[in-house]
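seq:
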Amino acid sequence: MSSQVGPRAAARLIASREFGPYFFGNALSASGGWFQNLAAAILVYRLTGSELLLGVLAFSQFIPVLLLAPWAGSAADRFDRRRLIVLVQSVAAALAALVAVLAWAGLATAPVVIAISAGLGITAAFTVPAASALLASLVDRRDLPSAVGLNSMTYNIARAVGPALAGVTVATLGIPAAFALNAVSYLALVVGVAVSRPRRLEPSAAVRFRDSLRLLRREPRLAALLGIVMLVGFASDPINTLAPAFAHAFGRPDTEAGFVIGVFGAGAVTAAFLLAGRVAGSRRRLTTTLTLLGAGVAAFALTPWLPLALALLFVGGFGYLASNTAATARLQLEVEEAQRGRIMALWGVAFLGLRPIASLVDGAIASAFGVRVAGVALAAPALLAALAIVLVGRRRRAASVEIRELEPGDLEALERDLPSPHHRRRAALHEAGTATFLVAWRDARPVGYLLVRWDGADEEIVHRLLGTFPELNAVTVRPQLQSRGIGSALIEDAERRVAERGCSRVGLAVGIDNPRARALYERLGYECWEHGTLDVSWPVPGEARRESETCVYLTKEL
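struct:
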């Protein structure tokens, strides 16, 4: 279990030799992107005076992320991610330097700028999945949610300060200088990745992109997490796209658009620091943060008084990053290493590749009904997602699964439908009062079970390091019914019983070769201890020997 949370956990990660260089390199590169975007937009508009070409410019930057996702994700899984990022970012630096030279020589026409922007979009399409997947090899598993949050924070810091610095640069040094600074920023990420020390992982050539799509069909919760990422991006888009119009709606000059974006980014940065070191996020927390995002942005759009509106926007920014971090971290934690690059390519499509569509939607709504209506319209899906999570949770709890303590006569059904040589020992502990044997029933047949050990773990090291508290053992669900909420229902019922006895903590051990079970426990709020692995053993019925398994230990505060 992590001993540090909040700003201390964030500072520890940023100061680490593995994650720190990447963090600072990515922050500088993200800021440089704003120099490129603003300088390119100003140059194209000065050359043509065409709003249409501004839209074409933005489209050229993001459409490669959508179109190239299959190949970019495959490359992130098949090749060394560190070398891939260095190569692609070096190409991006060369493109940015080229447009700087052409602009300096007066040769940067609108088609040239748009073409180079499309080239930079291609490099971004390959960088996003590789850099996102690289995080898992830069930090320990328990730190991955914090790393995802801090990684997202870099983009929000860039969004808060990048446009203002870019505007000052264009005004004082000129457009070519802004392009040149962007080229330098790409090299900052090259250096950061080059000096970082990720864990060595073997590239995978066996998994195809279509296999990741099949994985989404087989594991609907992964598709749901990608949907949440998409909705988070849609809810935040009015702040990015319509900030000048919002400033005008509050009776302020459009030059204050950067301040509006900065307040939203400040809320996001606050979330990254306050939530660092905490678990990836339970269903309840995700519901809360989505509500903060949707309600914050919608209330900002509707409030006529600017100071109150900005305070609400800060709340929306907090919910934005907290929701995105929770969904992104859970995506990374729940897939195998060989799938991570492809899944993060799909993440890039959900978060970045669909941004042009979001911009077109909120622009059209704003043009037809006003900017305030557009803000509410794009924030509403985040609120609906929060409501859907609540309703799904209630439906699962109300499903036709009955959870009750073991009763006389249940053993025969258990041994028939869920056979185990340990059932009689568990029943004996239940009868003696040192444990509670919970069984889940469906259509009068057992479909799952777990054992609550009231005297805690058998392993002395757990008592010595963490104290004595109840432990959950042998969480089992019939294979055909897994991923349907039965395991979660059993654990939640057990936690309720533990809390009713006045206990504030519960623990469990999970095998190191069982990542799916560990992902379930982490989704439910369990955190891994900091003391490495332990060997958990149990007696073999009818024999004088014991079997054992190498596990990690997780705990949850109730």
